């Protein structure tokens, strides 16, 4: 893993998650991932080996919308893109293992969600990508470096040093990461920029062990063709086309099953792969205001440290009771409570499930409550979270 990810805190194995924070992966013993560009006067190819412990790799497509371009992203089941390419022929990926002095900078604006996804959906060239990072805050420069390249063959490695961004530009073949020694040797006399040659280099720079390479990706920045090797040790790769996939609408593939899933029905994007998922939720008429008032009161009790056993089923209280202080602190971390809006309701046998969008001063939380016939809370779960940008 080479990127900051957003993930729910879990208490006692539950998605109690009345708060969510930046879960920073600190396991970073070596430089994970290998990235390089092969280019000449007529071709521009971007290559990446993704090294990490999570086998649940994903490839997903987000079509263009008002103010943003269509993109393909690669990463894992947490939906936090590790790399990607857009319809303008701009691509990016990261390499971790470069700790740097990069304190929070009030002069840089925060963005919603993954900064690199916001960059890719709004920038067409390397110059525009550089300008983006000069304007917007990207926390990952504290431990990682990014390579961006465009369809002209231009590329830039962007990193941090002594609190300032450093930009190394190039118009030739170049790369860095875990396979640095092999890249130095293989790119000393750059090979012809072909997919086959690049895949050969990717196989020579595979990582093994706990953080073994989970997939290899190749982007032809001029044609929009993608070549994905979900089994990096094999010589073949699955070919897709960015424009063709985007025309099919938003969807994703599980990389380990990519070949077979190409022939199956499209898989709709889960919430964590959608762009600003919470913005698309519509309020429902609240036909049970007493239930909403009851659940709002439970939140007040949590914040005040006055949770009551009688409000919960015995099974849930057995887990919640000992964790009251932790749950209280996690909810306080969201800021001041502002509103509770019903956006979903279902019934399964004797249980009723309510989905509420909870607005706090520092976050928006999509919270699920399951009630039994006696209106006791049987389950609590956080379906989605988004920190507010200020």
Q: How do the helices and strands line up, and which of them pair or pack?
A:
Layout lengths: L4 E4 L11 E4 L10 E6 L4 E8 L5 E6 L8 E6 L6 E4 L4 E6 L18 H8 L3 H10 L8 E6 L5 E7 L2 E7 L3 E4 L2 H7 L8 H10 L8 E8 L4 E5 L8 E4 H6 L3 E4 L3 H4 L27 H16 L9 H7 L3 H9 L4 E12 L2 E10 L2 E9 L5 E11 L3
CATH level-1 class of the largest domain: Alpha Beta
Order of helices and strands: EEEEEEEEHHEEEEHHEEEHEHHHHEEEE
Characterize the main sheet. 8 strands, antiparallel
Instruction: Return Rg in Å.
Output: 23 Å
SS element count, helices: 9
Q: What's the number of structural domains?
A: 2
* Basic shape: elongated
In summary, what is this structure?
This protein is α+β, with helices and mostly antiparallel strands. 20% of the residues lie in helices and 34% in strands. The protein has 2 domains: 31-275, Penicillin V Acylase, Chain A (4-Layer Sandwich), CATH 3.60.60.10; 278-387, Nuclear Transport Factor 2, Chain: A.
Note the main attributes of this structure:
Penicillin V Acylase, Chain A, 390 residues, 2 domains, 20% helix, 9 helices, six-stranded antiparallel β-sheet, 20 strands, Nuclear Transport Factor 2, Chain: A, alpha+beta
Characterize the structure shown.
The protein folds into two domains: 245 residues, Penicillin V Acylase, Chain A, CATH 3.60.60.10; 110 residues, Roll (Nuclear Transport Factor 2, Chain: A). The strands form four sheets. Strands 11-10-9-8-7-6-5-16 form an eight-stranded antiparallel β-sheet. By secondary structure, the chain is an alpha+beta fold. A hairpin with an 8-residue loop joins strand 5 and strand 6. The longest helix has 16 residues. About 7% of the residues have low confidence. It is elongated and about 75 Å long. Helices cover 20% and strands 34% of the residues.
